[in-house]
Amino acid sequence: MKSPVCCRCPADPVPPSARHRARQVGVALITVLLIVFIASIAATSLAALQQRAIRRSTVLIHQQQARLYTLGAEQEAMIVLIRDLQNSETDHPGEEWANLPLTLPVEGGAIMARISDLQGCFNLNNLWRPAPGELQAPTPNARRETPPGEGEKEQEPAEEGADATSKKPSPIPPKPAQPDKPAAKAALDPAQLKWLQRLLERLELKPELAQAVADWIDPDSDPLFPDGAEDGEYTVLNPPYLAANRPLVSASELRLLKGADQEVYDKLAPYVCALPPGVPLNVNTALAPVLAALGDGLTLKDVERLLESRPEAGYKNVDEFLNAAKLTVDAPVKAGLSVASRYFLLRAEARVGDGRALLYSTLYRDENGVRVLRRSFGNQD
Fold this sequence. Notes:
Elements: H1 16-87, E1 104-106, E2 109-117, E3 122-123, E4 128-129, H2 164-167, E5 187-188, H3 190-202, H4 209-217, H5 231-234, H6 262-268, E6 272-273, E7 281-282, H7 288-292, H8 300-308, H9 318-325, H10 331-335, E8 337-338, E9 343-352, E10 355-366, E11 369-377
Parallel strand pairs: 3-6, 7-8
Antiparallel strand pairs: 1-2, 2-9, 4-5, 9-10, 10-11
Helix pairs in contact: 3-4
């Protein structure tokens, strides 16, 4: 029996050089796979970036197209309002401007437009009655006055040496002196203040807010008694601010006033607006709570029945409305009523593909045409 020490181990069938070459081939294969993997990731990332860029560009193009569509709707609304002025002297919910098509299909999308009468709500700026010399909004009854001296022919000087008495007209005797009339001053309009207080009561809100609104608008710094609010009420807040002491630019300013939080604003906003002082309320388009606040004897149900029986062509004048409502109002309140409107609000929305645009335009209409007073994209306020 032979010793294991004497037995030789069989020789290695794979030489070392072959094993080295196989190891190199494996490393090369792994390197190639790694390069392919990295290239695939890079290609996928570039493709994803390209897709995002294409989508972003598409959305921007659609957004711009939708924006242009809303501006086109604005031009169409101006044409409709001009045509309405030519065909009717009153404005009511049965007219073309108040009954636009709900949706208008366009290439790649649709347009939705609605015109509402801004004079169908209570004008908060009417609380303060400006002096006659102050700048006011034009009213439907405003007429152009001839400036002093306009229309009079300018006299030529007499030639030297000529008979001056034959050339000059006979002198006009001077007018007798007129006693000076007391000039009207800017002041708070108590009739409008009472109207707003009744409106707040109809909406189950605190009527004390009316005095805070009046103090926000009036130019002085003296708070009304007992519920007014001037700078002293607002400078102690965080952050502090001052009362505007000027007419409201937007009804959204109500949220800054004493006693008006977001809940109060949401409840009051549909029935109030901020137009130039002196703009009357259109009784043909006014909402029921606003009309119900005209007098103490009117209830919301009475006004709702009145609106149901309103003539299809609207009331032709204010007296016809007052007779139908069996309502008697003071002269200052009646002067703040009308059956025609000049201020309108356009809400235009356009959708094109993935793009969407929302436009709010405040339009002013008079005998010279329609012009845009204010334009806001995305948000009315």
